[in-house]
Amino acid sequence: MADQSIVSALVLGLIEGLTEFIPVSSTAHVLLAGHFLGFQSPGNTFAVLIQLGAILAILLVYFQRLLEIALALPSSAKARRFVLTVLIAFLPAAVIGAFAHGFIKSVLFETPMLICVMLIVGGVILLAVDRMKFTPRYTDIMDYPPALAFKIGLFQCLAMIPGTSRSGATIVGSLLMGTDKRSAAEFSFFLAMPTMLGAFVLDLYKNRNALSFDDAALIGVGFVAAFVTALFVVRSLLDFVSSRGYAPFAWWRIGVGIVGLVALLAQRSAG
C-alpha cells in the first residue's frame, strides 16, 4: 500500500508540473487523478502543497529577470510600476481565498462532477477566445497598467472553482482586455508566483495539525516530480502559444472533462 501511495504521489506530481502553467487546470487534473487512483490527502493538502515544486521551477527559470527587476526598483519607475501591477492583480484572489478557504476546500474540491463540467465549459470558452481576432494594445507585461492588472486579478478569482484553471482564467481575461497571447501567458507566470506561494502558505497553516511524516514523504515525491516537469513547461510554453495559440489546450480540457464525466457516471452505476 505504501509503494502504491508513492507511485500515486509520483504520478500526481508529474501531472501537477505538466499542467500548472498551461490553461487546463492543474487542480482539476490532480484531483480527478487522485480520485480515480484512490489517493487520499487530508483536506486535499497534497494538491496544493506539491505546487511548491512548480513555484520553485518558475522562480528558477525567471531568476535572472526577477533579479534585474529587483535591482532596478530604486531607480526605475517602470520596474516599480510592474511590481505594483503584479501585487494589484494578486490582491482579489488573496482576499477571496483567505475568506472562502474552508468552502473551497471542503465543498468545491470534493465535487468531481463539477470539476469535469468546468473543464468542458472552460475549454469551450478558451477555444472561442483563441479564435477571436484581436488587435493587441499591450504586448509587453512591463507596460500593463494597474487598472488592467486589477481586472486580470478579478478573472483569476474564477479559478477558485476547481476545473476553471488559474492560468486559463488570467489568460482569457488578458486577451479579452487587449493583450497578445505571448504576454498574456507571461503575465500569468508572474502572477502565479505570489498566488501559488500564498496558497501554499495558507494551506500549510490551515492543515498544520493534519500533516504527518508520511504525508511529508508523499509530498516530497510529488514536489520533485512537479519541479522537474514544470521546468520543461515554463521554458517551452511561450514559444508554443506564440506559434500554436491556445486551441490545443482547449481541446484537451474538453476531452478530459468528457472522459472524466463518463468515468464518474460509470463508477456510480457500478456502485
TrEMBL record:
> NCBIfam families from the xrefs?
PRK00281.1-2, undec_PP_bacA
**How does the protein associate with the membrane?**
Multi-pass membrane protein
Give the protein's recorded name. Answer: Undecaprenyl-diphosphatase
Q: Which family does it belong to?
A: Belongs to the UppP family.
One Pfam family assigned to this protein is: BacA
Gene Ontology terms, MF aspect: undecaprenyl-diphosphatase activity
| Group of enzyme by EC | hydrolase
- What organism is recorded for this protein? Rhizobium oryzicola
Q: For this protein, what reaction is catalysed?
A: di-trans,octa-cis-undecaprenyl diphosphate + H2O = di-trans,octa-cis-undecaprenyl phosphate + phosphate + H(+)
Function statement: Catalyzes the dephosphorylation of undecaprenyl diphosphate (UPP). Confers resistance to bacitracin.
Q: What else is known?
A: Bacitracin is thought to be involved in the inhibition of peptidoglycan synthesis by sequestering undecaprenyl diphosphate, thereby reducing the pool of lipid carrier available.
Which gene is transcribed and translated to give this protein? Answer: uppP
> Could you confirm whether the keyword Aminoacyl-tRNA synthetase appears in this record?
no
